[in-house]
Each structure stands twice: as C-alpha cells, then as structure tokens.
C-alpha cells in the first residue's frame, strides 16, 4: 500500500494534481469506445471515423512544438488548467451532437479544438512532474499516474460499451466532459513557479534550442522514430479497423470488454512497477512495447474473442512498463528547462504518422482485406519496436547513467 506521508504523495502539489488527473482519466477512458460506435452507427460513419480521428491528431501534431516551447517558458500548471476547461467545453459539444443525432460534420471543428488543446497539455503534463515531486520520487509518481490510467482504462471502455448498447455513446462523452471540469477545480490547488524566458529569445529560438538538444541525443530520437512507425500501425489497425472488425464479429460489448481486459494488464503491471526497478529501462521499454503487436495479429487471424482478450491483457502490461520506463528516463535525464520541448519533439515525431494510419486504414483494408492488414500491421509493429535494440546505448543504459546527466549517455 502506498503511504500518503512518504514518497511522491507526500507532496500536496502532486496529490491535487494526481487526484484531478485520475478523475479526468476515468472520464476520458470512456470516449474512444463511445465516440467510435456513436460515429459507426450513423450513416456513412464507417468512412468518417478515420477522418474524425485524424481531425484531432493533425492539429495536435502541428501545434506540439509550440506547446512544448510555451510549457518551458510559462507556468505548466496554468496551461494544464486552461486546457482542461477548454476540453470540458469541447467534449460537452461533442456529447450534444452525438446525443441529438445532429450532422457528424459538426464534430470536425470540435475535434480540431481538442487536438490544439492537447498539444499544450501533453508537454506540460510530462514536464510538470519534476516540479511537484522530489527527483528520487519521479518513477513512483509516473507509476501512480500509470496505475490510475490503467484502472480507468479497465473500467471506462466496459462502461462505455454498455452505454453504447443501451442509451447511446454520447452519455460516455458527457461523463468525460464533466471529468475535465472537476480536474480543473483540483488544478487550482497546484501552484508552481513561472519559467522566465531568456531575454530576447523568441518561440522560434526556443524551438531551435529544443531541436538541437533532441537531435544530439541518439537514444531519444531513435526510440521516437520507432514509435512513429508503431503508432502509424497501431492507430490504423487497432483504433480504426478494430471497432469495424468487432462490429462485424463479436460486437461493441465484446470490443469494450477487450479494451477493459487490456487495462487489467495495464493495471497489474502498474502495481508491480511500484516495487520493480528496471536495470535496463530503455531496453526493457522496447521489449515490453513489442508485445502490443500480438493482439493485432490475433485480431487479423480471427482467433476469437477469448484469445484476443488474453493477448490484449499481456499487451496492456507491456505498454505500462514501456510508458513508465520511457517517461522516467526522459524526466531524469533531460534538464527541466528543456524537458517540455524535448517531450514535444518526442510526441511530434511519434504522432506525426498517426493521421496517415487513420486515413489509410479503411481503404487499405477494403483492397487487401481487413484480416490481412491487421496481421501484417502486427508483424511490422513488433519489428519496429525491436529495431532500437541494435544500439549499444539503448541496450545498456542504466538509471545510474541517466541521473547524473553524464556526457556518455547524452552525447552518443
């Protein structure tokens, strides 16, 4: 059991941040299933789903570098607070559209708003942890957040699947909207110092400085490049084709169950990671994430819901280990005044391929077959995850190498 008087939770700043983030995560975990099936149930929804998802990710990717630079300049707590309020309003609009049966075209501008808000939230979220917890508690803070995320993903999709099958997915999105507003209230209790900008520096100069740091750290950009290919495959196969294949086979409730059980793996691994110290965090990060390719192969081969659920559970565990290892490595190794920019370049490189996967998934599947695309996608995912292991640094780096910011870790 985690002691509230020791570790990351001994910081009142982190406790309020953690509580607000946990509430928001539980709401947001319902949206993927609720939105996907709300769109798919509408006329021409199958062809619109990928474009609606891309309408959010494209502006998100385009604005990430600006968001990272601003997060390194100004108060990350205020940026996250404003973003939560904006997301609450946009999700309210999406819920009204899906519940009222209005034209799905109205979802596109709100998806764009969500994408822009997320571009400011993500770098600030990843950068704020070293500001509200002691450096030795960073891994525990990331693990606690991962535990909440896993628990949310375990409950949210299942509840959303039931709502879709009964009263409609729009209600799941409405819950998400409310969770953003509650999180914003919690964030009013988190206060950190502003980051004074260097005199005469511009956002463009800040971005150049962040890029210079990023490109000189091969251990960072090589893993980012691997995630670019993995995200292209996963978002196309799992996010777009997954619900379509499910609708034609085991249904929305089965798909919600799959995502929920995947989160059992996420949650279990999060609990284990509270005690487990990874001796080779970068190596373990990539081996663990490679497991996520297996459920795509199972889905493509049509092995049935029980096999898919088991594969998804293991993939969830691998995803948790990978995420905690990667975020902790960055937060311990990168100076705080550059952290949001480096995370922004990491996100930018990792996410820029997602719209391609979302848009091309259905056309490719219609020409080559849904099962074929899912199977090949899973194989490509695994290969991409393991490629960075050919680097000596990724294979050998330890937490002790990262903490002192030694030149042999960063400059190689």
TrEMBL record:
Does this entry carry the keyword Ubl conjugation? no
Q: Which Pfam families does its entry note?
A: MFS_3
Fetch the InterPro entries from UniProt.
MFS_trans_sf, TM_effector
Q: Which UniProt keywords apply?
A: Cell membrane, Membrane, Transmembrane, Transmembrane helix, Transport
Localization terms from the record: Cell membrane
Q: Which residue spans traverse the membrane?
A: 23-42, 48-67, 79-100, 150-171, 219-241, 253-274, 286-303, 368-389
User: Would you indicate the residue range of the signal peptide?
Assistant: none
Main location as per UniProt: membrane
The protein's topology relative to the membrane is: Multi-pass membrane protein
Under the heading PANTHER family, the entry gives:
INTEGRAL MEMBRANE EFFLUX PROTEIN-RELATED, STAPHYLOFERRIN A TRANSPORTER
Output this protein's name: MFS transporter
Q: Which organism is it from?
A: Alicyclobacillus dauci
